[in-house]
Amino acid sequence: MNLILDIIDISTPVILLNDIDARQIGVLEGDRVTITRIKSKHTIAAPVSITKTLTSQGTATVSLGTNNALDGEKGDEIEIRAASRPSSIAFIRKKMDGGKFTREETAAIISDMSSNVLSPSEITAYITAAYINGLDMDEVEFLTREMVASGEQITFSKKPVVDKHSIGGVPGNKITLLVVPIIASAGLLIPKTSSRAITGAGGTADLMEALAPVAFSASEIKTMTEKAGGVIVWGGSTNIAPADDMIVTYEYPLKIDARGQMLASIMAKKLAVGSDTCVIDIPIGPGTKIPDEAEGRILANELITLGNRLGIRVECAVTFGGSPIGRNIGVNLEVSEALSILEGKRGANSLVQKSVAIAGIALEMTGKSGSGTGSDAAYDQIKKGKALKKMLDIIEIQGGDPKVKSTDFPVGEHTFVVPAASDGYVVSIKNQALISIARTAGSPVDHGAGLHLHKKPGEYVKRGEPLLTIYAERGWRLTRAVEEARTTYPVLVEGMLLERISSNR
Ligand SMILES: O=P(O)(O)OC[C@H]1O[C@H](OP(=O)(O)O)[C@H](O)[C@@H]1O
Ligand SMILES: O=c1cc[nH]c(=O)[nH]1
């Protein structure tokens, strides 16, 4: 049936059909249709949603997400036909039943995902099936290579091309904002691509976006890296492994990071930008993605094995993730904390030590520093102001303000101080509770939202002194975040009353 194209500004891939047209075409809610733009003969597929009022008879309204693939214009004539179910759905079902993906099956799933043929519920089913039943190393390699093939690749003539990545999972992990300028200021190339928050309250791409634009094409990333030595950009921005970012988007609301997809997500971003040397940070501890050192070592070996298969030299750093890195969580708070260290101000030891340790491994792997001297050399780049200068170069080349200072990042005007209920030492911190409070307060979407930890494990606090301050840009968000803090006890002081339990009668 031929209809007239309309376009609606929503990203989820969908085509809205009037219920009378849908009946004539022979499709129900959630079925798939093919859409052919008559002018160009270009055909794509999309899942259907049926409406009585939003789309009038004779018109088909496609989302921007669908139109990106169709490349149509409002008013175009299009032909709509009922489509058969893509074969990738059978492959997803195979994984649900505990089967193993072949390379061809992985390619079909990633291709259908990238071209918006799979619906959000089918993508979620794919992620969930792989989360529950796992992917072996062959399947992970297939996925990595298909993620890379779904987008553009960069190659540099100068070697080495260095990279760093964190598996995430620890709040306040802003180290990339220090590690990248340290490495680039030592004369190495580092085209760093990051995801937005996956399980956390602010991914590196979210943080960097407070300093400069992060969405660039592959050729822009290459040119900027060659000029400035490094960049910090969003991996999902354009066409660098776009399927990776789709998976991350569907993982975010579930607060999961499926193991096989995480391995592929990390290494696809490295392979796509032509990295040959990579340090991967594996934070471990309660409330992180990896509970203990033994599991950290297993993951490290998986990343190293995958790196070998892809021709990337990988070293992993198993790091302490039992409490936040630094004291700030949330976009502006974290950016400010990272910049102030680069500016030479005193700051949280956890942030400085972790950053120089990771940067130091890269310096040693590339021969820039001798064995055992990398972290001192990395620290020197901060102390001599070279890392700050490089960070400002990176900000400028990405279109940000090169005069920016750590004091330029406002926090939300709605604040609440959580006081200690008793005297004592802080014995532990619940990472997940802190992340959840920061997300409830509005992070990462509201850049001023988040929290500042006044006390960390081992520190003494007196009753009534602040344990943490919550910041929000909207009053209602602060109210909800405070309610959460009152029930989850994110900072535990020894001897404190956690809960009163009484009989229901
Ligand atoms: O939200 P969670 O799961 O904590 O972590 C996700 C973050 O971890 C990685 O950080 P980086 O790019 O190595 O700095 C990803 O790119 C992303 O920014
Ligand atoms: O980039 C990343 C980091 C952690 N987990 C992912 O899935 N991707």
UniProtKB/TrEMBL annotation:
GO terms for molecular function: 1,4-alpha-oligoglucan phosphorylase activity; AMP binding; pentosyltransferase activity. Keywords: Glycosyltransferase, Transferase. Gene3D superfamilies: 1.20.970.50, 2.40.40.20, Nucleoside phosphorylase/phosphoribosyltransferase catalytic domain, Pyrimidine nucleoside phosphorylase-like, C-terminal domain. The active site is at D257 (proton donor). The keyword Transferase applies. GO terms for cellular component: cytosol. It comes from the Archaea. InterPro entries: AMP_phosphorylase, Glycosyl_Trfase_fam3, Glycosyl_Trfase_fam3_N_dom, Glycosyl_Trfase_fam3_N_dom_sf, Nuc_phospho_transferase, PYNP-like_C_sf, PYNP_C, Pyrmidine_PPase_CS. It catalyses: UMP + phosphate = alpha-D-ribose 1,5-bisphosphate + uracil; CMP + phosphate = cytosine + alpha-D-ribose 1,5-bisphosphate; AMP + phosphate = alpha-D-ribose 1,5-bisphosphate + adenine. Residues 425-492 form the Pyrimidine nucleoside phosphorylase C-terminal domain. Its EC number is 2.4.2.57. SMART domains: PYNP_C. GO terms for biological process: AMP catabolic process; pyrimidine deoxyribonucleoside metabolic process; pyrimidine nucleobase metabolic process. AMP binds at G169, S195, R196, A197, I198, T199, G200, T204, S265, K289. It holds the Pfam family Glycos_transf_3. NCBIfam families: AMP_phos, ARCH_P_rylase, PRK04350.1. Catalyzes the conversion of AMP and phosphate to adenine and ribose 1,5-bisphosphate (R15P). Exhibits phosphorylase activity toward CMP and UMP in addition to AMP. Functions in an archaeal AMP degradation pathway, together with R15P isomerase and RubisCO. Belongs to the thymidine/pyrimidine-nucleoside phosphorylase family. Type 2 subfamily. HAMAP family: AMP_phosphorylase (MF_02132). This is AMP phosphorylase. It comes from Methanocorpusculum parvum.
